[in-house]
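To the wet lab folks,

You asked to see what we're planning to order before we commit. Fair enough. Below is the target structure as tokens, and below that is the sequence we designed to fit it. If anything looks off to you, flag it before the synthesis order goes out.
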């Protein structure tokens, strides 16, 4: 048995310091609990104060990021506007070029000649409209670009101010780099003179009219030659060959006009005279008929020789088709008069000419010509005589009355020569037209070069990026609900944050959607200017506008669609060549592809922007921080006045879309009322 404590008297002689917090029974004491509560409360209030300080300190960086993005967003809007305006200028210029192309081709095609003047007039008016629009757009873009730094400053100031509160005011500004524009807009400043194209069109049109008249003359003469050969009125070469020479079958075919050729008539005549020569005999036993028969035989032989010496394949050598003698005078002008065809013998010391050797008393001493007989070198026999009178009557008998083969041969030969003469002139005109068409294509190419090259080279203020400076000017006190016996009141000093943003293409979005909506609106425009052949100028303009970014891919199909409205027939070789050439000029032209991806602002390191601008980060920071005002309202008011000076109060007309065929125009306005609301 023991008395007292388990450890006896000595357990009370040494007391542990932990006994204040831990009881003898292994439990926590009241003091221990109180200390824990005090420490816990102190940590809670300290951490809450720390969180508040950290959050307020980090907020300024978020405001700086938003301020930089707000500045770059203005640059993004400017780039989109410029692309849309350039699309208008380029597409309207191409409308004019396509209208001119159709007008020039029509000028070179006889059946389309009448459409050329109104088409060229429409092309001129479209060029005038394009020039008016380009001038207004250039002036508007320049003003807008000059106002862009002020707009960036105002928008960024407004963004920073919108994130302020009564207890946490911010003053922020986004500075664009470069500070001044380095853009160029060659297409907006180029003036396209349509004088050369109009002159080319007039020359082609005049030559085409001349060619059309010659083609009509050729058609008329070919028809006249065909009718003389194949169509009885009351007779023709075909029917006379059948009746007089008994030709039939392949030697005396009947042809339709479409399959008939000049060579077929020549071959018929060749067969006819060969047959007539072989079958020629006197019609009675009189000396006169015998002499005429001999003369006819020589006439047929002469005609066969002349006609068989010529071929007219592919309408060639039509000028060489012989004109057969038809009276005494024309006999004197051919070989029948000069060739020694007639046998002659001496009778009583006198040289006597006979029409043949059949009834001569002796062998021919020589042969004489009708010229020698007429000159008295030989006299004509009293029986089988030959002289100019007999030969002249033979030539005249069948040529000057409408039942003779030679009557229709004369019509055919005259028509063939007239056809050949017109054809020769037409070839000369075609050669001139070809040269003019080549000159026209060169002028067209030069005009297209002015229209199609020189897309805007954009480097507006803020193209490299925007660097934002945000200042929290006042000190921030710890909220009252965080001040207690455990934490004292603290102050967060003022601070500065730096951020930067630049533009990057967004692959998920495209300005093409903007152009498509714009193209739909263009289709609805009511223009008094109407173009023949081309159904709708507005539709053509809208197609070009919608395909602005990839014209190099779509110009071929658009051009084919425009040229598809032209119908060619007849001799339109030059027109076809010019159509192909102008189409080739358009479709092979090196249209610069335009990146239509929307540019969206993204955050970057400020050194990236300043490095592109060739500037030092420290120098720029120091300079802008020193200039930063502490009153955002005063700063906003200053930049708002600058914006109003450049752009006006409520809206800014950046360009005027001409109403084709009229002096009126549709204004393109930018709504500025949002500036007054901030």
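Sequence we intend to order:
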């Amino acid at each position: 048995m023991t008395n007292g404590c388990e450890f006896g008297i000595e357990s009370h002689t040494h007391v542990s310091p932990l006994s204040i917090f831990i009881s003898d029974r292994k439990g926590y004491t009241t003091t221990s609990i109180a200390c824990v509560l005090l420490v816990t409360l102190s940590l809670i209030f300290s951490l809450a104060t720390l969180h508040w300080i950290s959050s307020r300190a980090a907020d300024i960086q978020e405001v700086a990021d938003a301020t930089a993005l707000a500045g770059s967003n203005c640059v993004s809007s400017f780039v989109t506007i410029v692309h849309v305006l350039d699309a208008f200028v380029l597409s309207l210029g191409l409308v004019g070029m396509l209208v001119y192309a159709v007008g020039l081709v029509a000028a070179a095609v006889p059946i389309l000649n009448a459409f050329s003047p109104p088409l060229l007039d429409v092309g001129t008016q479209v060029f005038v409209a394009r020039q008016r629009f380009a001038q207004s757009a250039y002036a508007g873009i320049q003003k807008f670009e000059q106002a862009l730094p002020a707009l960036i400053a105002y928008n960024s100031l407004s963004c920073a101010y919108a994130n302020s509160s009564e207890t946490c005011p911010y003053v922020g500004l986004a500075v664009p780099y470069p500070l001044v524009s380095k853009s160029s807009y060659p297409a907006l400043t180029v003036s396209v003179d349509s004088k050369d194209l109009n002159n080319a069109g007039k020359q082609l049109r005049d030559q085409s009219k001349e060619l059309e008249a010659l083609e009509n003359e050729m058609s008329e003469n070919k028809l006249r030659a065909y009718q003389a050969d194949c169509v009885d009125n009351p007779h023709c070469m075909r029917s006379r060959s059948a009746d007089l020479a008994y030709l039939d079958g392949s030697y005396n075919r009947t042809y339709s006009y479409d399959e008939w050729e000049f060579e077929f008539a020549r071959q018929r005549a060749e067969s006819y005279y060969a047959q007539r020569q072989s079958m020629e005999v006197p019609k009675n036993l009189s000396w006169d008929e015998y002499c005429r028969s001999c003369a006819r035989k020589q006439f047929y032989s002469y005609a066969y020789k002349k006609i068989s010496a010529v071929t007219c394949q592919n309408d060639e050598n039509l000028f060489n088709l012989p004109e057969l003698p038809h009276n005494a005078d024309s006999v004197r002008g051919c070989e029948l008069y000069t060739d020694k065809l007639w046998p002659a013998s001496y009778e009583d010391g006198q040289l006597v000419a006979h029409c043949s050797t059949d009834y001569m008393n002796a062998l021919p001493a020589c042969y004489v010509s009708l010229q020698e007989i007429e000159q008295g070198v030989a006299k004509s026999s009293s029986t089988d005589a030959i002289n100019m009178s007999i030969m002249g009557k033979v030539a005249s008998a069948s040529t000057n009355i409408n039942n003779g083969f030679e009557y229709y041969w004369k019509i055919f030969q005259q028509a063939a020569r007239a056809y050949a003469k017109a054809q020769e002139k037409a070839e000369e005109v075609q050669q001139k037209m070809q040269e003019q068409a080549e000159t026209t294509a060169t002028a067209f190419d030069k005009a297209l070069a002015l229209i199609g090259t020189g897309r805007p080279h954009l480097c507006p203020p803020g193209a490299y990026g925007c660097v934002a400076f945000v200042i929290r000017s006042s000190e921030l006190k710890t909220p009252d609900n965080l001040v207690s016996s455990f934490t004292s009141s603290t102050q967060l000093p003022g601070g500065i944050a730096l951020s930067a943003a630049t533009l990057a293409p967004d692959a998920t979005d495209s300005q093409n959607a903007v152009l498509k909506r714009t193209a739909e609106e263009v289709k609805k425009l009511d223009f008094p200017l109407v173009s023949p052949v081309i159904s709708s100028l507005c539709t053509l303009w809208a197609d070009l506008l919608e395909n602005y970014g990839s014209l190099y891919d779509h110009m071929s199909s658009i051009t084919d669609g425009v040229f598809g409205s032209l119908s060619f027939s007849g001799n339109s070789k030059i027109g076809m060549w010019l159509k192909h050439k102008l189409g080739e000029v358009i479709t092979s032209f090196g249209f610069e592809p335009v990146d239509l991806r929307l540019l969206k602002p993204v955050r970057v390191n400020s050194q990236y922007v300043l490095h592109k601008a060739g500037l030092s980060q420290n120098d720029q920071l120091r300079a802008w921080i020193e200039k930063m005002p502490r009153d955002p309202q005063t700063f906003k008011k200053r930049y708002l006045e600058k914006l109003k000076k450049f752009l006006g109060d409520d809206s800014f007309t950046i360009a005027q879309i001409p109403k084709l065929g009229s002096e009126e125009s549709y204004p393109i306005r930018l709504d500025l009322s949002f500036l007054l609301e901030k």
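Structural context that might help your review: The longest strand covers residues 495-510. The two ends are 94 Å apart (CA to CA).

Thanks,
Computational group
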